[in-house]
Amino acid sequence: MPDDAVPATPAGPTPDAVFGVRRSLAQRYAEHLVTSGVERGLIGPREAPRVWERHVLNCAVVAEIVPDGARIVDVGSGAGLPGIPLAIARPDLHVVLLEPLARRVDWLREVIADLGLEIEVERGRAEEPDVRRRWEGADVVTARAVAPLARLASWCVPLLRSGGMMLALKGASAAAEVERDAAAVRRAGGGEPRIVRCGAGTVEPLSTVVVVERVRGSGRPAGPRRRRGQA
After folding, report:
1. Alpha-carbon distance 109 to 21, whole Å?
2. By the 8 A CB rule, do 83 and 119 touch?
């Protein structure tokens, strides 16, 4: 991809307000998205001109509703969205990217190594028993453009500790999905889904997040279980 296709950091205070001293890391990540990310099919070429507003900032502003020091499992992470922008904006977070496709996992690991971020990447699906055993008890589970709300809740809610939150980044369909799938969310162990808008004064349009708290089921403490043999 030619150099003029590499996204310039948006003018004004927005990136500094979101990323602070880690603004350059966010810029480097955006460059990965529009170069190797496009070349290897993680995002479409038409997304490159709007990668900051539609992807990087849209995801990063969700950090405003994430608790301090939270352990996050990002389900169906794809190009690292929203997990990588959250980790850049909030270095206090402990982020795991969960992605089933090997080529995407390879790309994620390359990008994370280049950025020097302490993020773990696991190849797998949230509904797989082994994956669930390793990562259940998370404070927050995130997902963006992965599945309809009912199916998403059946995968994500079991990964949460009691009281933990599923944050599903949605678009215009959010209200309709909440109305249609609220009963399925409750069956999965979640509470009443609610819609939260993030990024006031920072992004336009605001980021739309469906928030679901786990109200029954696991009583495990926050954070993923360690693998056998880990200290």
Report:
1. 23
2. yes
